[in-house]
Amino acid sequence: MSPALVLVAVVFVLVATGVYLVLERSLTRVLVGVILMSNGINVLFLVASGAAGEPALVGSAEPARMSDPLPQAMVLTAIVITLGLTAFLLAMAYRSWQLHGHDEVQDDVEDRQVRGRAVRDETSGSYDPDDEEAPVEERSEDRRRAHASPSPRDRSPGDGPRRAAQRREEGP
Amino acid sequence: MALVVLLGGLVALAAAAPLLGRALGRTSCLVLAGGLAAATALVAALVPGVVAGRDVVASTPWLPSLGVDAALRLDGVALVFVLVALVVGVLVLAYCARYLDDAEAAGPVPAVLVLFAAAMCGLVMADDLVLLYVCWEITTVCSFVLVSTAGAPATAPGRQALVVTVAGGLALLLAVVLVVVATGSTSVHALVSDPDRLLSSPLAGPVAALVVVAAATKSAQLPFQAWLPGAMVAMTPVSAYLHAATMVKAGVYLLVRTSAVFAGQPAWTAVLVSLGLTTALVGAVLALREHDLKGVLAYSTVSQLGLLVAAVGVGTPEALAAALLHTVAHALFKATLFMLVGIVDHETGSRDVRDLAGLRRVMPWTAAATGVAALSLGGVPPLLGFVSKEYLYEGFLTAGPAAWAGPVAVGVAVLASTLTLAYAARVAHGAFGGEELSHPGLHEPSPLFLAPGAVAALACAVLGPAVSWLSPLVEAATSAALPGEEAPEVYLWHGVTPQLVLSGVTLALGALLFVRRDAVDRVLQAWSPPSASAAFERGHAGLLRLGEVVGRPDRAGGAPAQLARLLVAVVVVAALAAVGLGPQPERLVSEDPVAWGVVVLAAGVLAAAALTRSSLVLVALGGTTGLLVAVWLLLRGALDVAITLLLVEVLTAVVLVLVLRGQPRRLPRTSARRALPVAATAAATGLAAGGAAWALTGRRPLSDVGAQVLAEAEPLTGGTNVVNVVLVDLRGLDTFLETVVVGVVALGLVVLGRGPAGRRTGPPGPDPVTEDLVLRVGTRLLAPLMVVLGAYLLWRGHDEPGGGFIAALVLGTAVALGHLAGGRAPFARTPRALRPSLLVGGGLLVALGTGLVPLLGGGALLAPFDLPLLGALGVTSALVFDVGVLLLVLGLAVAAVHSLDAGVPDAGRADEQRRATRPHRDADGEAGDDDGDGERDDARVRGTAGGRR
C-alpha cells in the first residue's frame, strides 16, 4: 500500500485553513473553520484506517476487496456530531448578531473581574449576606423585572440607549 | 446483621429528619433522640457478647476487583466509641429539642447530626480501610456543613476546618494506599492481627507518619489545633457533639486502632507523647487565657485530646485503658459543659465570663450540673474525671523507652492538669459564682432543656465511684486494641499510690491558681501568643497565589488564546509521536498529476476562503471543499459517508444562507498584527495532521473487527449495507448516545431561538417571501419528491446506502429549502407535527423503546428482534431504531432552520408591536412562548411587513 502524497497535502490544506479560520474572532469564520478542520480530520482518519476498496455492501464484491466499514461508521457519526456543533455555533453567531450587532467573540471582561474579586476575597455588589436562600443574581433580576417598563426585553445588556436611538430614527 | 440494621436505621432516620422537622417542629428532635436511643439499646444488647470477646461482624463485597469489602466489625474498641457517639447523640438531640427553634429543626442541623452519628459509628466499626476512610471524610463533610449553618461568620473558620481536616483525610488515604501496597489487603482486622506484615515493610515508617498527621488534624493537635476553636462559631449542640465529644475523638480512635501495629515502637511513642503533651500544655494555657466560655472549652478540648494522644502513644495496656476511660469521661463532662454553657448563652445572650456573674442564684440546678461537670474536668475526686486522670498519670509513669521519659511525661501532665483545674473552676465560677447578679430577671431553663446536661453531669458523678461498671468495657477495648496483652481492671480506690500523690499536688496547685486568678490573668493577658489562625490564613493565601500562578496560562482572555494552547499541544504531541515512531518504512509513493491538479484547486479555494471578507463567499468556498471531500469518499468506497457528507454540506449551506440573509455580508478585517502568528499556528497544526496522514497510512490492513463485521453482518442481522448495520445494530448504543447529543443540541437551539430579540437583525431587507421564482417553483416541485426520497432511503438503509441519518438530512434539507423559499412553499413554516421538541422526544422514545424491548425477553440492550406482522413486510427492529435516529436528527435540522431563520428581518418590530398591543404581558409570558405561538407571530410579522410596503 502506498501513501498518496495527494491525500497528505489535502489533509494539510484542510486542517491548516480550518485552524486559521478557527483562530479568528468572527463566529462565521470559526464556523467554517470547524467544518474544514473536521473534514480534514475525517479524511485523515479514513486514510489511516486502511486501503480504499469496494463499498461495503454484502454480495456486491469479495469481502477481501471491500473497504473497512467500521471507520466509515465512525466517520459518519463524526460528521453528524459536527453538524450539531455547527448548528450550535451558528445559533450563537446568530444570537450574538441579534443582541450585539456583530458576531465576534470578545474577551470575557466580566470573567476577569470576577477572578479579580475572588483573588481579593470580595463579594460582588449584588451579594446580600442576609438572604442566602436563592442565588442573588436571580432575585435582583426579578426585582428589575418588577420595575422594568415596558418589558424586560429592553434590558438586554448595553442595549437600552441604542434601542431608544433606533426608535427615534424609525420615527412614526 | 445487627450492624447493618444499626447503620441503615441511622441513615434512614437522618433522611426522615427534615420531614419530621417540618411536621413536628423542634419536637422532632425528641423523635430523633428516641431513634438514637433505640440504636443505643441495639448496641447495648450486643455488649455482653463483645465483652466476652465475640466480635460482631458483617461484610459484603463492595469493590470485588480491588478486594475491598463493606466490612463492619464491632469489637471492644469500636464498642466504646460507638456507645460514646450514640449516648452523647441522644443527649445532644434531646437538647436540640429546646435549643433549636422550629425553623432550625426543619433545617439541615438535626438531619446532619444524625447522619454524623451514622458516619461516626461506621468509622469506628469499619473493618475495611477504604470504608474507614470514606466514613472519616463523611464526618469531615458533616462537620463542615454544620459549621456552615452559622452563616457568614463561619466562612473563614469553616474553610479552615475543612482544609485542615481534609488535608488530614488525604494523609489517611495515602496511608491506606501504602498499607495496601505493603500488605496487599484492605482489611483492618488482618492488619492489626498480623502487625509484622506491615512492620517488616519499608513503608511502615511513612504509614505511621501519615496516620499521625491524619489523627493530629482530626484531633486538633499542634500545629493543626487552630481549626477547633474556630469551629466554635457553630451552634452549641454541634460544638458539644462533634467538636468536643465525638468527631475529634476519631483521631484518637485511629491511633488506638493502629496501636496494635505501632505500639512499643520508640519513634511512635516519642512522637505521640511529645506531640500530645505539648498540645495538652499549650491548650491548657490558652484555655486559661480565654474569656469566652466556649473558647475556654474549645482549648480545653484541644488540651484534653493532647493528653489522650500522649497516653495512646505510651502504648502500654495501662496507658491505653486510661486513654479509653478518659475518652468516655471527657465525652460526658465536655458535652455537659457545652450544653450548659449553651443554656447560659441562650438565656443571657453572653458567654463572656467578664459579663456574667451570680447566675447560681437564678439557675441553681444549671449551676449545680455545671459545677459537677467542671469538677470532673478538673479531676476532683470522686468524679469520673478524677478516676480517669489517675489512670492517665499511672499510664504516663510507665512511659518508655528512656528512664527519664516517665517522670518528665507525668510532670507535664500534672502541669497541664493543674491548669485544667484552674480553667474548669473559672468556667463554673465565672458564670455562676460572684455576689452580684449580672442578668436579673432570668430563671431556670425548662426541665427538658436542662435535662440532657443534668443527666450527663449525674453520669459523671455516679460513674466515678461506680467506675467498675465501665471496667468490662475498658478491658474488652484494651485487649482488642492490643491483642495478646493483659488488660488492667479499673476501679476507684487504689490505696496511696504515686498517682494519688500527684493528684493531690494537682488539686493544691490548681486551687492556688484559681485563688490567685487575678494575678494569673494579668500575666496571661500580658502575653499575646502568635495567632495560629492568622498563620493558617497566610499559608492558605500563599497557596492560592501559587495556584493562581500555576493556572495563569489557562486564563488567557478570549477564545483564540485558549484554542492556540490546545493546538500547540497537538503539534507537540505530533512531534513527540514522530520521534517515537522512528524511521518510516520504505513505501511506494503514488503520484498522480491529475490528482495534484485537484489539490492545487482545493488549496486555492481554501486560501480564498481564509482571506475573503464576504460571508457568502466564505460559506460557498467552504462548502465546495466539502463537496470535493465527498467525491473522494465516493471513490474510496465509503458510499454512506459520502452521501452523508454531501447532504450535511447542502443542509449547512442552506441554513447558513437562511441566517446570512439578515446579517451583513462583510466580515471584519483580520488584523495584520495577528495574521502572522495565527498563520504560523495553522501551518504547524496542518503539518502535524498531514504528517499523521503520511505516517499512519498503509500501516494496517483490514482490521480484524472490520473483517468480522463484513463476514457476520448479514447472518447476524439480515442487513447487507454493513456500514448501516454497524450503526444501527452492532454499535447501536453508540449511535443512540450520539443521537441523544444531537437531540440535546436541537433543544439548545430551540431555547436559544426563544431569547429576547434585542436589536434588529439588519437593515430592512427584502421581503421574507422571496421573489425568486425558480427557487419557489423548484421547492414546490422538489419538496414532495424529497419526502418520498427520504422515506425510501430510510426503508432501504439496512441493505443499500441510506438509513436514518441520510433520510433525516434529506428531509431536513427539504424543510430548510421550504423556509428559504417562503410564501406558500411546503415547509415555509414549520408544521406543528415537526416541532423540534416533538421530534426529539419522539425520536428518543422510539430509539430507546426499540432498545429496551429485547430486555423484556431477557435479551441484550438493543438486540435485534422480530416484529409480528411487520416482519413479513421487511420491517425489522433495526428499521424502527433507525426511525428514532431519523426523528432526532430531523429534530436538529428543523430546530436549526426554525430558530435561525433570519428571513424575518423585523423580528424586533414584531416584539414591539406585541408589546404595544399587550402591554401587560410580562416576562413569564415571553418565556412560555411555544413554537405554535412563534408561528402566529411569524404570520403577523409577515402581514405587517406586507402592509407597510
TrEMBL record, chain A:
UniProt superkingdom: Bacteria
Chief location of this protein within or outside the cell: membrane
Region (Disordered): 106-172
Bilayer disposition of the protein: Multi-pass membrane protein
Segments crossing the lipid bilayer: 6-23, 30-53, 73-94
Cellular location(s): Cell membrane
Biased composition (Basic and acidic residues): 111-123, 152-172
Entry keyword annotation includes Transmembrane helix: yes
Cellular component terms (Gene Ontology): plasma membrane
InterPro entries with a match to the protein in the record: CPA3_antiporter_subunitC (IPR050601), NUOK/Mnh_C1-like (IPR039428)
Keywords tagged on the record: Cell membrane, Membrane, Transmembrane, Transmembrane helix
A Pfam short name: Oxidored_q2
Similarity comment text for this entry: Belongs to the CPA3 antiporters (TC 2.A.63) subunit C family.
NCBIfam families: PRK07946.1
Protein name in UniProt: Na(+)/H(+) antiporter subunit C
Species of origin: Pseudokineococcus marinus
Automatic annotation (TrEMBL), chain B:
Positions of the MrpA C-terminal/MbhE domain: 680-754
Membrane topology listed for this record: Multi-pass membrane protein
Main location: membrane
Protein's UniProt keywords contain Transmembrane: yes
Domain of life: Bacteria
Transmembrane feature ranges: 76-97, 109-125, 131-150, 162-183, 203-220, 232-255, 267-288, 295-314, 320-344, 365-384, 404-427, 448-471, 491-515, 563-582, 594-611, 616-635, 641-663, 675-696, 735-752, 773-795, 801-821, 833-857, 869-897
All copies of domain Na+/H+ antiporter MnhB subunit-related protein, residue ranges: 774-894
NADH:quinone oxidoreductase/Mrp antiporter transmembrane domain mapped to chain residues: 126-401
Pfam families assigned: MbhD (PF13244), MbhE (PF20501), MnhB (PF04039), Proton_antipo_M (PF00361)
Domain MrpA C-terminal/MbhD: 601-665
InterPro entries according to UniProt: CPA3_Na-H_Antiporter_A (IPR050616), MnhB (IPR007182), MrpA_C/MbhD (IPR025383), MrpA_C/MbhE (IPR046806), ND/Mrp_TM (IPR001750)
Cellular location(s): Cell membrane; Membrane
Basic and acidic residues compositional bias, start-end: 908-924
Gene Ontology CC: plasma membrane
Keywords for the protein's UniProt record, in alphabetical order: Cell membrane, Membrane, Transmembrane, Transmembrane helix, Transport
Keyword Protease: no
Biased composition annotated in UniProt, kind: Acidic residues: 925-936
Disordered, as annotated region: 906-949
Name the UniProt record assigns to this protein: NADH-quinone oxidoreductase subunit L
Organism: Pseudokineococcus marinus
